[in-house]
C-alpha cells in the first residue's frame, strides 16, 4: 500500500514535468508566480511520504486487536456484552461463562472467624466486579486500537483517491473535472468503530471507563458530523497541483483531529485506571502468604 502511494506520487510529478516540457517547447511565457509554483513540483513525492508511512491497518495492529479479543473471551461473563450482540464489524464476544466456576465461596463453608469474614468481604464478594472491570479495561483498550486502525485505513483510502483523481485529471489533458471531487472518509472514522455495552455495568463497584467510539459518536451527533470535500480539478497543473496540496493539507488536519479524539478519551481512562486499581485487581488475601510459622490461633500459639 505504501509503495502504491509513492508510485502514484512519482507519476503525478512525471505528468507535471511532461506538461512543463510541452509548454516550454511551445514557447509559452509564464509569469513569476507560475514559475514559482512550478519550482515546488519536485516536492510532490515528499507531500505524500507521511501518508505512505502510516501504520499498515492490516499489519501488526490487527494482530493486537485479535489478541485482545482473545483476552475478552477469557473475561466476559456475557452480561456487559451479550454474545448475541454483534458489533459494527459483525463480530461477537463469546463469554467464558457466568463466573460460577470461579466461585470459591462453597469451598470455605464451615470456615468461621474474622479471617473467614475478611476473605469473604474483601475477596469473594468483589471478585465479579473485578472481573467485569478487567473486561471493560481490555474492551476499551481494544476499542482504542480499533479506532486508530480505522483512522489509518480511511486515511490511506483517502490519499489514494486524491492521488487517483489528480492523475486522472492530468492524464486527460487537464480537461477532466466532473469527477475530480471527493469527500474525505477519515472524518468520523473513530465514531464508526465499536459497539457500546448492552446494559452498562451490572455489578456494583465496577470501574467506569469511557469508550472511545461512544464519545466520538456523541460528539458527531452534537456537531451534525461535518463533511469535507476536496477538489483537484483544473485547466492545467498550475491549477491542479495547488488544489492537490490543499487537499493533502485538509486530510492531514482531519487525521490529527481523529487521532486526538482517541488520545483525549484514553488519557482520561488511564487516569481512571490508575485511581481505580482496587476495582481492577482483586485484593491479595492475607492467607496467601500464610505459613505454619506466621499463623496463630486465638491464644496466640503458632500452628
From TrEMBL:
Coiled coil feature spans: 241-268
Keyword set includes Coiled coil: yes
Keyword tags: Coiled coil
Superkingdom field: Bacteria
Protein name: Uncharacterized protein
Species whose genome carries this gene: Hamadaea flava
